Amino acid sequence: MLSSSSKYAINAVLYLAVNASVDKKIRATEIAEAIGVPSPFLSKLLQILSRERKLSSSKGPKGGFYLTDEEKQLHLIEVVKSIDGVDRLEDCVLGLKKCSSEQPCPVHFAVQPFKNKFLQELEENTIEHFAEKVKKGEAYLFI
User: Fold this and answer.
1) What is the pLDDT of residues 82-114, one digit of tens each?
2) Taking the CB of the first residue and of the last residue of the chain, which one, N or C, has fewer CB atoms within 10 A?
3) CA pair distance 28, 38, nearest whole angstrom
4) Does 4-85+126-135 carry CATH code 1.25.40.10?
């Protein structure tokens, strides 16, 4: 459902929401190490998110990435849209091109309710909502 790119981006954004601020910017290499993803690839994803104003960045010796209060209020689906678009979330889990309720794959009706609920969660909840779960110890970002 989600590409590795979207997974990395979501983890990075949530890591920033929990650990960074305007006064405490975090470099891509530190984020990559903390969440266990390749640094060069994550850097490209963070640049995309910054360019699309889903997170903020600054250059220089004290530069890095962070989220403003406004960016924390973005729905998590915005991160996925910036990286993959939403079509990937609607694709058949078996990879069939013509999977639908009218022409379902063998697992369509088993998976569709989960996909709908997952998409609803991403559309209705903010970055801050999910970051709060991490802060409270109700969810984790690390393996």
Assistant:
1) 999 888 888 899 999 889 999 999 999 999 999
2) C
3) 10
4) no
